[in-house]
From TrEMBL:
The keyword DNA-binding applies. This is HTH gntR-type domain-containing protein. One of its GO terms (molecular function) is DNA-binding transcription factor activity. The keyword Transmembrane does not apply. CDD domains: WHTH_GntR. It comes from the Bacteria.
Length: 83
């Protein structure tokens, strides 16, 4: 399960930081700590949007950032998985 927004370092929806980057960094940190392992399915966009209290499009951008970092892979119709 993902953390509440108060626990996510750098997530201030009113601040100047990019929210999608803070979310991507949080998920990347979870991968680094082994909380999400290779092959694990990342929660869906709607679940993450609800958990983080952000728009679904912001979650989609965070997932795109994680793909660009080479941390996850999205399989159409299946979900997003840790590499």
């Amino acid at each position: 399960m993902l953390m509440d927004e108060e626990e996510i370092r750098g997530l201030d929806r009113r601040g100047p930081a990019l929210v999608y980057m803070a979310v991507a960094d949080d998920i990347a940190a979870r991968i680094s700590r082994g909380e999400l392992k290779s092959g694990d399915r990342v929660p869906g966009e709607l679940d993450m949007a609800s958990t983080y209290g952000i728009a679904r499009m912001t979650v989609a951008r965070a997932i795109k950032e994680l793909r660009e970092r080479g941390l996850v892979q999205t399989v159409r119709g299946k979900g997003t998985f840790v590499l």
